[in-house]
Amino acid sequence: MTSPDTEFISILGAPSGSDTVITRSGGKSLPEVLPILGLSDIVIFPGMVAPLLVESAASIRLIDDVVAGDRFIGLVLQKKPEVENPTPVDLWQHGCAVRVLKMLKFPDNTVRVLVEGLRRFRVAHYESHEPYLRAKIEVIRDVVEQSLELTAMTRNAQRQFQEIIDLSPAMSDEVKVAALNTEHPGKLADLVAANLNLSLEERQQLLEINLVKERLARLLPLLSRESEVLTLGSKIQKEVASSMSKSQRDFFLREQIRAIQRELGESDPAASEINSLREQIENNRLPEEAKKLALKELERLQQIPPTTPEYTVSRNYLDWIVNLPWSKSTEDKIDLAAAARILDDQHYGLTKVKDRLLEFLAVIKLKNKLKGPILCLVGPPGVGKTSLGRSVADALGRKFARIALGGMRDEAEIRGHRRTYVGALPGRIIQGLRRVESNNPVILLDEIDKVGSDFRGDPAAALLEVLDPQQNNTFTDNYLDLPFDLSPVLFITTANWLDPIHPALRDRLEVIELPSYTATEKLQIAKRFLVPRQLEEHGLNPTFDGRFRRVGRLPRPREI
Description:
By secondary structure, this protein is α/β, with parallel strands linked by helices. Helix content is 44%, strand content 17%. The protein has four domains: 139 residues, LON domain-like (Archaeosine Trna-guanine Transglycosylase, Chain: A, domain 4, Roll); 87 residues, Methane Monooxygenase Hydroxylase, Chain G, domain 1 (Up-down Bundle), CATH 1.20.58; 55 residues, no CATH class; 178 residues, 3-Layer(aba) Sandwich (Rossmann fold).
């Protein structure tokens, strides 16, 4: 059994000191009967010089006899490479007669030979099987029909093969020189077939064709395919090399910047930012799920170059997580007497409304936990609905945030935008909590009756989850994609009338109506609140009696 050694490279052209392809040796013609050696994974062409590795005992004996004799041998491809001692059934009918140029024996009982292809042949019949195969052969000569078409095909094959040589670094200079100096179309076809990257079946088919024109016609599509593959591979290699060189250049520049900063006693801004975020995550007492996600995002942020847009998106997301008041809250200081004084000082009249608010505060003080109906202050504009909400916040000692819902039509204003969108932000609820830096403020949802809906969603449906005490403890904003507990928040809503409010949302509200003021109440409001405020805003003395006195004499206007 014979197989090519993977350490050998097939070349074309005789070795140094030898002539070109020969058909005679010592004045003797190619014999009609040749010893046959099966090849497992290589096809030899006329004019091809290749190394072979011989391992089996029968094949080594064949080589010894050939080298001692005329050095001619027939090489035929096996149909099944795994067969160790092939029989005539295991071999193709066509092969190549070669001459053994060199032989080397190695201590591992293997033989390496260098052979040179001479002629195509077809096996007529096998004469003996022992100690090795011997067969009578019929030499096949190239059939060349001189024509313009054959000349054009030859030049086209030569041109394409030169392009392949330029694109393939594995091709040797000897092959390039041989291709430039080979004018015979048959020899050129064999040269191309011997050095082109083809399968064993394709090589065997080319070996069996003796019509040179047909051989070139079969070879030209294979040349085009190989040229396209090498061109694409070269393009990919250039792109990869360019990308790697840019990445390496950026890496070296960053390392130089870090070295310069270390020499100057400065720290790396990116590293400082990462360390600062890590400290905030550890110190801000985040919930377990939020902390786990933040640390995972921080590890991802370390792998992203600071110059990419993705770095900014990830950095902003982490900034929102670490700066939310997950565990920051204000302590309630519910003093009903003080709360009554605050309501009386800031509002005149509205006795029933104040009593209802004081009852609400009293229940909170008794339960020591806020979980109940949502107050909805309903009344015409200007009766003090918003200022009442602020007064409740002052009475509780909590921070106050106002969210205007008038004209809101996008559900994302409540639930937030997903991070896949450019410029995405959390919803108004989460933004308000971050702004007041407390997880239990009083949030006034102003003008809840002005909420609309369109193709972007229904904000009223999102408010159902926000205002429902059974659901808002796991409110999930689309941007954060983390549950946030809204149950400590005291929500107060305002409206001008109840009819436009969604029925399901209206059922969750406890309505407190604020009627219009009487004439007497308006007079007292003007005296106690409006006039002092206007005096202060205009820089007048509070003791001003309302009469203006002329200071000095004004010049009389000229007559025109």
